[in-house]
């Protein structure tokens, strides 16, 4: 059991030397490809979320699209600046969890961790379903198979991530570059248009703009702001996964964070300007981004390139979760809030158990939703707002305690961000509560309770093991090795040789059942044993029932009670077949005995493998 704890980083951590695993870690470019797809893809639904809310106030309301987007871009700048500071202060990763753990206490840090876990899991399901929805929109005949397509995409992304985060990043560089270049081209060309070059994509589709609305209330603007903040999901992923970057890790992660903020901000503002310039109105069945591509580039090959690039990036944006969540689970496991298996790494710097767990839960969500995006979207983004708010609040306390140069300005910036994201979290939860957000309200405390339960279990284990205390010096006890046997063979000889090498005393035991055939076999074994003369006593253990493990466990327990100062070891000889398929030919007697002894006694179990070549 690990008792390691994560400490806040220092400036010296920013110059970590390279290690042998750096080839499996991220650069700035691959970091953007691996950890920013969620944020990049959000431009496909963030501006649309703003427009759909403002459409309730008619054409007059749509005129506020650019101001609302500018407010979101300002919040984006605040978040990027804040998470750059988080990266510098906490280079071991963890984002809002690490900040809250240091400055806001354990319970708040667990709320932050739970919110991030929920957000990451939902991001996978939403990203995959949104990408497949774009595919089925282009090819309606695939609509009935969307669940199987979603699961196939999830399997593909999982398989890529099991090869390592660098391999997944390299695989996604091209789609990310194509998408970003497509968006920038769309914006650049659109800025030179005085009017839409085409409106073919929206023809024949009903408008969702309200009629005769001429006023825009503060609540509507607040709701539009909160809905548009869905474009900010994924901004925290880089701060959560700092250990995945090459040395110097903190510096590369900060560069990746500012690059993400710059590209995302340009795309959001550029799209909002085009929405206002073209007086775009949302319609049923056609995305705002599709209308913008139609208006800027025309209904031609460029239009379809943007649609396919958007579809692919939406599906692949699930990779942000595969890059960030396993690192967060590792930190939780290291702090004894999750099973320690989540802290293990494979050869290619992969937290395999975290990747597989994320894939399994996401698959369950996909099956639950039937591959339908609208079922999952109301649950999305609440968790990330909670994490944003906690991280910003924690950084305010960080600056107050550190009191570095210009700390008041930094604390004011983080405080403003905490207020804005906190308000957004409340508004989104309230407006989406009846659409499924109540599940998140219930899931958050349940997840925190699960973390606490695991932590208490590890605390009890640590207390029993005396972790943190100096143990008594080791001493030698008399040892007794028990070897279950059923016949004479080379395996028996190897087992007894190992046993006499391990213990002061060795006993071979054989179980005798009451039926005549078994008694005859045991009597024959005893005669052969006497002729062989191995120098080890053979003990007959009677059993009334046709069982193997329990009689041996009862014999071991009786020895433990009769000889309390003796260390008892049960050495179980087993054959290791030359080929894997031959394992089905084994009788599994060793496993049965090991299970019974482990369950009913305190004896040590040693399983001797005799390899057949």
From TrEMBL:
Residues 12-23 have a biased composition (Basic and acidic residues). Residues 1-23 are annotated as: Disordered. It is found in: Membrane. The chain crosses the membrane at residues 44-63, 110-135, 147-166, 172-192, 258-281, 301-329, 350-370, 376-399, 411-430, 436-454. Keywords: Membrane, Transmembrane, Transmembrane helix. One of its GO terms (cellular component) is membrane. It is a multi-pass membrane protein. GO terms for molecular function: transmembrane transporter activity. Pfam families: AA_permease_2 (PF13520). Its main location: membrane. InterPro entries: AA/rel_permease1, APC_K+_Transporter. It comes from the Bacteria. This is Amino acid permease. It comes from Streptomyces formicae.
